């Protein structure tokens, strides 16, 4: 299709040109068009090719050192050394490559999960499809919070406003229409009847026909200019990278010292060169970055299984630090399964029986069944509830065998009203002819109400309004009493407010219903048409808490995480539910949006610690709450679903969007998406986040202790004028092979039992906090010393058998590591605090590493390569004893300390 000036064509022409109707195209036709026009995607620019990913593995500084070493070894005629080092580098490169490909794949699959969708009509049916599958001619429904998925000519608009700054730079939302625009050369910003890909619906709704997709869109024309580089590196990864660089310098410095002293002591230059390379290799934890990436990727996969989709990798770390969760109420803490239970009209309370979406139930007045259609006021209340409604109630079969069930499409609040109407035999179908809709003023969380304009058979237009009772009441000048509008007196107002509160106190979520006659339909296009209304009555629905929420909240409490409810609902309802689910402790404060408005930021900051429930707030308040909490040093997780929630989601340390009910805009701003909208999932994600961080800490500790040990062995041996206790190839082997497997297994270690009984970690804490740094030094030191001791013992008893002494030292180092790995599983506890068999991968990894060591020692062709000799039983007893010392001596001391502490009378607490 060549460039058409869609904006200057009329709607029928646009439909004709795109060969479609308001019922959309067929699935078959869509398939053909997809072949013709391609996927609705912007080309993503350069993709990292597998080859460059592979080559990247060899750009590491350490690898360069090794290459240089290889070259020199080769030049000096030490070919086995050279070949082996190259082999190890290549193996390491392949491993790193495979790991990175895997990590990349799992991150790509994350992107898929979070991919945008579009609501379209095909074959006359409304469906939701991935936005990438849109084709020209598709009829798209747009709603506030959607990202426009393609270039679209609008064919219907209801208060539709679109923010187009990504395309035009204009940050104010543009009101849209459907009228053709005469000037064919109008600029993009002036094409009021178009919605362009990538722009954002900030208000209202609309329907349009897709006229361009993918690279044919206006956005496609400038796609090269936009780079959406997401953060894919976590702060920890960055810090480890820095640490790696520091270690390189340390290694170089030590190496220089050792080499110079060695040469002055009369050692040969090649020998000293080898020693220098060994030291450099010993100091740098080659495997670390790759293992961090794997641990993160695997952790992210586990989170997906628990229904939490991570959009920004760094948040995996931040999650473990969360100290406050601010959660929406409706749908997150509650089930979003509304059932109207009570209503109030003409001064009387009615109870409605029945459960869920099953439209069976009675209307009762003081326990007696009544016929709602015989009572005019009640009937009108129900009619408005059904007319002022965009939901759909249908009977559907979930599976082939199952009984058909009633399901609601659209807003559950409105679904509940349809069910209520159906219980009285009042349905949208029965009203469609009698009172057709002319227009709609959509709901949004700021207005807290929604209206439709209808015309009845007598030709009278009426504005039918439903919304939050307190908000509605302020806009009512009259009230319907005994079928007549009576001027709203202050005592009437009070009566409504009282009825509202008494229903809310029972945890009911209330809606008010009102109307007003409209003489001229154009009236409702004015700025604020919902005024001078006639109040009719109240509807109260229960929305039961999600069953798992209570436990999740008490888990949070134990984990030192505060849960805060932020809701658009009424204060009394919010408070009742907060009490039910255990959010509101005795003495905890509940405040509402109006009170929040009177508070300065400073006041809020002072009191935010005591507030547990924010009721009747607008999305804009959320940002203030996030900031106030952050100023108090909190790490804040904040949920949201609408457009206006996006700023708060962005500002929070962990922005969370709803997977089911969330808008595109909220999802894009978020770091985490809950695919089941469930509060408990947030807690699960935090638990995983803590576990992942702990695991990273475990293997960082494990690997670094190994490196400390290796450096010390080499360094002291040099200083003492001994020969090299470990050969470079052996150190390389330890670092890349025998340490790698157990380290990866630590990366998938199950979390410690008390993981959710500790306070959140401080965001600023380094990975070496809580004694981890000290443990690395002490364990490393002991590993180094026992290795050196074994070497020295063997070498001094038989100086002619250097190879044997080196093999013993090599084995001691490896075995000490393989024992130490079990100590690393607990941050505070140590080797005895956890069941060894809990992590079968670790057992497997340790056994494999031990077998590999055996292979290097006992398989004859390996012996000249790794410069080893076979060891006998006695040798092994020496090796294993020495290897056990670092871990067990410290564990024994700690156990002893604990016993002493227990028997000693304690003075504190
Ligand atoms: N579809 C609707 N039409 C009219 N009024 C509505 C509709 N949905 C909700 N309301 C009213 O607006 C109020 C605020 O709704 P909003 O969606 O902002 O918050 P909420 O869903 O009650 O709670 P939360 O913020 O926890 O999700 C509701 O308490 C209700 O009285
Ligand atoms: Ca809501």
Describe the structure using short key phrases.
elongated; 18% strand; 909 residues; 47% helix; binds adenosine-5'-triphosphate; Calcium-transporting ATPase, cytoplasmic transduction domain A; 5 domains; alpha+beta; 11-stranded mixed β-sheet; single chain; binds calcium ion; Calcium-transporting ATPase, transmembrane domain; 8-stranded mixed β-sheet
What does this structure look like?
With 909 residues, this protein is α+β, with helices and mostly antiparallel strands. The protein has five domains: 6-42 and 114-228, Calcium-transporting ATPase, cytoplasmic transduction domain A; 50-109; 238-298 and 693-903, Up-down Bundle (Calcium-transporting ATPase, transmembrane domain); 308-334 and 546-677, HAD superfamily/HAD-like (Rossmann fold, 3-Layer(aba) Sandwich), CATH 3.40.50; 339-540, Calcium-transporting ATPase, cytoplasmic domain N. Helices cover 47% and strands 18% of the residues. It contains 31 helices and 28 strands. A hairpin with a 2-residue loop joins β1 and β2. α10 runs antiparallel to α24 (679-719), α10 runs parallel beside α26 and α24 packs parallel to α27 (772-797). The chain is elongated. The N and C termini lie far apart (80 Å). Mean pLDDT is 87; it is low at 225-230. Calcium ion (CA) is lined by residues 328, 330, 568. Residues 5-78 form the Cation-transporting P-type ATPase N-terminal domain. Belongs to the cation transport ATPase (P-type) (TC 3.A.3) family. Type IIA subfamily. Keywords: ATP-binding, Calcium, Calcium transport, Ion transport, Magnesium, Membrane, Nucleotide-binding, Phosphoprotein, Translocase, Transmembrane, Transmembrane helix, Transport. It is found in: Endomembrane system.
